[in-house]
Design a protein that fits this description.
The protein is α/β, with parallel strands linked by helices. It is built from nine helices and ten strands. The chain has helices at residues 54-61, 86-90, 108-119, 124-137, 153-165, 183-198, 210-216, 234-239, 244-254; strands at residues 16-25, 28-38, 43-47, 69-74, 77-78, 93-96, 171-175, 202-206, 219-224, 227-233. Strands 6-7-8-3-9-10 form a six-stranded mixed sheet, with helices on both faces. The protein has a four-stranded antiparallel sheet with strand order 2-1-4-5, with helices on one face. The longest helix is centred in the C-terminal third of the chain and has 16 residues, at 183-198. It is globular.
Length: 259
């Protein structure tokens, strides 16, 4: 008898190629010629001090910000093409922000079904089945009828992850998803992200969680003042960085008391 494969099917994955990316706000040049490639199924963490351009870079990938120069390829889409079908491209991208951005008047289940029903034109039954499956993956299926204000911050962020996954994205962008959380709830969110990474999702994560970056990321990119200072395997960059600026940043982050 042939043994059936019981492993869950890995999601489709889109790679990202960023070339010569520049972004300015008036006279303030935030991104100064960024070159980053993320392979399909790869997890890349962006680290660096606040104001280094990490979140702006992430928002450019999804075209929430319009770059001044450079190209961004997301799968087969050229995000920086003026004629790109942004709606079609964004259907392949899930994004989780610092704030949860849940609709307060809707239940958890309704928050997770409104976009598939409106954008993908799914039936109520199909959308709810998919939403419950994704909520189950983040351990919150039993809270599907709750309103957001009845949940902890960590639970709301996990709902935001489940909501993004209901659109079956090929790329997930995380913009400091744990920065607004109490320390006790951070672990549950990171565990959900780890599970997603292990399933083969392409992920770009802006984070200050060095433990997560070391254990889950395939590569770490350190940015400072709008440029990529150093990138490489996570363990190498975090444990043995080669650039003085990276060394100084990690020394302050990993040993804030300077002992």
């Amino acid at each position: 008898m042939t043994q059936q494969n019981t492993q869950p099917e890995a999601p489709a994955a889109s790679g990202v190629t960023i070339t010569g990316l520049h972004k300015s706000y008036g006279d303030n040049e935030v991104l100064k010629g960024i070159d980053i490639t993320v392979a399909p199924g790869e997890v890349v963490c962006l680290i660096g001090a606040s104001g280094s351009g990490k979140s702006t870079l992430l928002r450019c990938v999804n075209r929430l910000e319009d770059p001044n120069a450079g190209t961004i390829m997301v799968g087969e889409f050229e995000a920086t093409d003026p004629d790109v079908d942004l709606d079609a491209m964004r259907r392949q991208i899930g994004m989780v922000f610092q704030q949860f951005n849940l609709f307060p008047h809707l239940s958890v289940l309704e928050n997770c079904t409104v976009t598939p029903r409106k954008v993908l034109k799914q039936s109520k039954e199909a959308a709810e089945a998919e939403a419950l499956a994704q909520l189950d993956k983040v351990g919150l299926k039993h809270l599907a009828d709750r309103k957001p204000d009845q949940l902890s911050g960590g639970q709301q962020q996990r709902v935001a992850i489940a909501r993004a996954l209901t659109m079956k994205p090929q790329l997930m962008l995380f913009d400091e998803p744990t920065s607004a959380l109490d320390p006790e709830t951070v672990g549950d969110v990171l565990a959900s992200m780890r599970q997603l990474a292990e399933a083969g999702m392409t992920m770009i994560v802006v984070t200050h969680e060095m433990g997560f970056a070391r254990e889950v990321a395939d590569r770490v990119v350190f940015m400072d003042q709008g440029v990529v200072v150093e990138e490489g395997p996570a363990e190498q960059v975090i444990s043995n960085p080669s650039q003085p600026r990276t060394q100084d940043f990690l020394r302050r982050v990993l040993n804030p008391l300077g002992e």
